[in-house]
Design brief:
about 375 residues; alpha/beta; four-stranded parallel beta sheet
Length: about 375
């Protein structure tokens, strides 16, 4: 353990001792969740400090109705579906995209929105649907390809819009009040785009401190010290320990690009339900690139697996080990929910780094 890590651990212990009660913080970002597990940070925490996972994994928060719509679109004649790899194995009502591809469906795994547009250019006789998933981190890239498709007149390209916004989800969690939260460890990647100022309403209106951090252990521990210090001193402000890449204003160019192409809309989240103005829809002048509209489809109802508690996990209501399916019916090789699929999923991280030494499922 480095001297700096040891110093931060001591500071955290001293602050938690002063607090005199249990302190519960939420790491919003799935990348933070994985980093915390991988680095062993949980083992360094005082007993009265608990970290819970939040709705920051874009795959995990995608509602079942959107997964089912993607699978239905992939079955349409003449359609090529382009998707990021994490979405392939997420179970839908009738299987997964991976299983559907095994039956001959034209489903391409891509690593950028631009690759989806390239598929449309290369296949003018096919309809290419891009599965647009992610938060403000990936939404600007989707906006850019929509504008390019419009400029080039590429009319065989559409997007299944599943993009979501982080702040409304944080506010919805606090409004629901199901899980007592003393503060938020805010996502680094998203914060590069939206800036730290975007979190001010969370601190001001809900009285919860927010600290933006990177993903290295020292950054995470520094942020936890800052959060606990605010909780103990009964403060609620936005702090930034990721100053190398995150500013107060964020990336104004990326946000302006999003504003040119998208408007906020009410959208469904796994477990959280429909949150007002928490998603992105195409503006009227770009609506011809909306896949649901192009194919005349409507989103159905959500039908999650009855054993899956992914929704409870990503809202801090449960830990993966408390799910009866964890490690038994649900494993990375045979997942029944997205939290066991995604590289940022809490259940996948827990399975890899935090399983009991003997047996499966159950408590730690």
């Amino acid at each position: 353990m480095s001297d700096r890590i040891a110093t931060l651990r001591e500071a955290l212990s001293e602050l938690c001792g002063r607090g005199g009660r249990r302190i519960q913080l939420m790491e919003v970002c799935g990348t933070h969740t994985v980093s915390i597990f991988r680095s062993g940070i949980r083992a360094l925490l005082p007993e009265n400090l608990r970290l819970v996972s939040g709705p920051g994994c874009p795959v995990c928060v995608t509602a079942q109705r959107h997964i089912d719509a993607a699978i239905e679109l992939a079955t349409q004649p003449g359609v090529i579906l382009a998707t990021y790899g994490d979405m392939m194995r997420v179970p839908g009502r009738s299987g997964s995209l991976e299983k559907l591809r095994g039956t001959g469906a034209a489903i391409h795994v891509i690593n950028s929105a631009e690759k989806a547009l390239e598929l449309a250019r290369a296949n003018p006789d096919r309809a290419v649907v891009f599965l647009g998933v992610g938060f403000e981190t990936t939404a600007p890239a989707t906006a850019a390809v929509v504008l390019r498709a419009a400029e080039e007149g590429i009319e065989n390209f559409t997007v299944l819009m599943c993009h979501k916004l982080v702040i409304p989800a944080m506010q919805a969690l606090l409004e629901a009040g199901d899980v007592p939260l003393d503060g938020f460890l805010a996502p680094g990647h998203v914060s590069v785009i939206i800036g730290t100022a975007a979190y001010e309403p969370v601190a001001r209106e809900y009285g919860r401190p927010v600290v933006v951090a990177g993903f290295e252990p020292q950054q995470v521990l520094t942020a936890l010290v800052a959060l606990v210090k605010q909780v103990v001193e009964q403060q609620a402000a936005v702090e930034n320990v990721y100053t190398a890449v995150v500013s107060a204003a964020g990336n104004t160019v990326a946000r302006e690009l999003m504003d040119r192409v998208f408007v906020p809309e009410d959208t469904a989240w796994r477990e959280l339900g429909v949150i007002p103005a928490s998603g992105l829809a195409l503006r009227s002048e770009h609506r011809r690139f909306d896949a649901l509209r192009r194919f005349g489809l409507e989103l159905g109802n959500d039908a999650d697996h009855p054993l899956c508690q992914c929704g409870e996990v990503i809202t801090g209501k449960a830990e993966p080990s408390e799910c009866p399916a964890f490690g038994d019916e649900c494993t990375p090789l045979n997942p029944i929910g997205p939290c066991m699929v995604s590289s940022e999923g809490t259940c996948a991280a827990w399975f890899k780094y935090n399983r009991p030494a003997v047996g499966t499922g159950g408590t730690r």
